Amino acid sequence: MELGLREELAGVAEAIREAREEWLAAQRFFAEVTEPELVDQAIFRLEAAERRYMYLWKVVRNQGKALGNPLTNT
User: Is the pTM of this model over 0.85?
Assistant: First the structure.
């Protein structure tokens, strides 16, 4: 594997880890929010974090398909 691709994959892996942590934090915030004024914010934050996480996985899956990786062709 060439060095540039390896660095790119490491960067994407780090972005996915960060997005997952953000999503989990948003889930905790949503579960713990008690102020009615914050419920909308908690929902927005939760949905945005989930979409970012899913988007990053979609990017990885599409890159794998482009590279001919059989693990991502499902």
Answer: no
